[in-house]
């Protein structure tokens, strides 16, 4: 009888101890799982550390999550003369990331009533060929103008001259286009990525505003947003501080490949900027600092054409607004662009539904900035 009483009294104690052990086990399991997880910041760091050696051209990358800069770091060097390291203030040639800035300048002029999206090319340049009568500002912004590619119209470069002496300028692009008698297709019927269109948009900003494009961008966009070291580069005028130089690998050796015959045009790709300043650019679009909701909605509305639709660089279907690609990625909303020019690769990827932005800037031509930016984005999207 006494034994039974002792046994019965022991049951609650046993169960209580068992529960305690189970709780300890679950806590330990949770801690172990947590320890086993690799922080997304560590993944980003490992990704670029494994790609970039200390004394070679490199990359700067920025991750903004919920409006906070959660990762910002440079890898490699700006140039191979002094081996100055890349950091958050290093300015890279943005190449086609410039197009969003050029489109923004046009939007500002439209807001002020100095320009309209339905204005035609011949309204601004009356001596443009007759086919320009059907090309609207809207077509230029959305790559539906059908303009010939100025790169195909350029005469062969003289090989014995320094590259800076044979570079084409924006006004020369206009002059070449004025010698053509037709476009590639009727405006608005197809989509075709056009550097010609964005060079002309830059020239339109100059003609309508009465300022050079670099001055307009500086006074109306860069200074108001606090982008102190960002600028459209014109050789012999204001120099770019903390500048990175482009590179390519040839026969296993790094060679400086900073300029090409098309590197001097402005509206399609002439801006230099850094992670520090691009964070402010990203904040301006997220926080509606430049435009109201309706204006932004218009800029981020994908163009629709009856003919062949837009495609990404890899050939997949894409959508385009005013200086931005707008097609989703893995079910997430996406606002993005890329830049490719001799010696530089750049990418901007923003996912509004996750409040996530990834920026990758490289001063070497062997890296796929788009793929790297999406890989970084995936680290954070998976975490969510």
Q: Can you walk me through this structure?
A:
The longest helix has 35 residues, at 2-36. The protein has 13 helices and ten strands. 39% of the residues lie in helices and 14% in strands. It has helices spanning 2-36, 40-51, 98-111, 121-124, 137-142, 150-153, 163-166, 170-178, 195-209, 213-225, 275-286, 293-299, 369-383; strands spanning 59-65, 68-75, 92-93, 231-232, 247-250, 253-256, 271-273, 335-341, 344-351, 356-362. It is globular, with a radius of gyration of 26 Å. It has a single domain (57-383), classed as DD-peptidase/beta-lactamase superfamily (Beta-lactamase, 3-Layer(aba) Sandwich), CATH 3.40.710. Strand 5 (247-250) and strand 6 form a beta hairpin. A five-stranded antiparallel β-sheet has the order 2-1-10-9-8, sandwiched between helices. A three-stranded antiparallel β-sheet has the order 3-7-4. Strands 5-6 form a two-stranded antiparallel ribbon.
What order do the helices and strands come in, and which of them pair?
Blueprint: H1 2-36, H2 40-51, E1 59-65, E2 68-75, E3 92-93, H3 98-111, H4 121-124, H5 137-142, H6 150-153, H7 163-166, H8 170-178, H9 195-209, H10 213-225, E4 231-232, E5 247-250, E6 253-256, E7 271-273, H11 275-286, H12 293-299, E8 335-341, E9 344-351, E10 356-362, H13 369-383
Antiparallel strand pairs: 1-2, 1-10, 3-7, 4-7, 5-6, 8-9, 9-10
Helix pairs in contact: 2-13, 3-9, 3-10, 8-9
């Amino acid at each position: 009888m006494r034994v039974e009483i002792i046994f019965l009294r022991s049951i609650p104690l046993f169960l209580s101890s068992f529960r305690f052990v189970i709780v300890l086990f679950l806590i330990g399991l949770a801690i172990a799982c947590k320890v086993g997880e690799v922080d997304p910041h560590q993944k980003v760091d490992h990704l670029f550390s494994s790609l970039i050696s200390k004394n070679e051209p490199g990359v700067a990358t920025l991750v903004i999550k919920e409006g906070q800069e959660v990762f910002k770091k440079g890898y490699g060097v700006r140039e191979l003369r002094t081996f100055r390291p890349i950091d958050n203030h290093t300015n890279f040639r943005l190449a086609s990331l410039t197009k969003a800035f050029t489109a923004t300048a046009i939007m500002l002029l439209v807001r002020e009533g100095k320009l309209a999206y339905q204005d035609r090319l011949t309204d601004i340049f009356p001596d443009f060929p007759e086919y320009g009568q059907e090309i609207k500002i809207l077509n230029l912004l959305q790559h539906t103008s059908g303009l010939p590619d100025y790169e195909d119209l350029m005469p062969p470069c003289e090989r014995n001259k320094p590259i800076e002496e044979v570079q084409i300028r924006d006004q020369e692009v206009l002059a070449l286009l004025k010698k053509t008698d037709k476009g590639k297709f009727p405006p608005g019927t197809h989509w075709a990525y056009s550097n010609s269109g964005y060079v002309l948009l830059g020239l339109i900003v100059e003609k309508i505003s009465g300022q050079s494009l670099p001055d307009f961008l500086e006074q109306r966009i860069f200074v108001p947003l606090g982008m102190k070291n960002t600028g459209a580069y014109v050789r012999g005028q204001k120099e770019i501080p903390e500048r990175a130089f482009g590179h390519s690998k040839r026969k296993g050796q790094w060679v400086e490949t900073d300029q090409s015959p098309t590197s001097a045009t402005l509206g399609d790709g002439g801006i230099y900027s850094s992670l520090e300043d691009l964070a402010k650019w990203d904040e301006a679009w997220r926080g509606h600092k430049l435009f109201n909701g309706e204006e932004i909605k218009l800029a981020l509305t994908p163009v629709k054409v009856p003919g062949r639709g837009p495609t990404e660089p890899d050939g997949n279907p894409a959508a385009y607004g005013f200086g931005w690609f707008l097609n989703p990625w893995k079910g997430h909303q996406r606002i993005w662009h890329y830049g490719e020019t001799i010696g530089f690769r750049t990418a901007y990827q923003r996912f509004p539904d996750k409040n996530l932005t990834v920026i990758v800037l490289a001063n070497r031509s062997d890296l796929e900035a788009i793929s790297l930016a999406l890989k970084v984005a995936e680290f954070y999207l998976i975490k969510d």
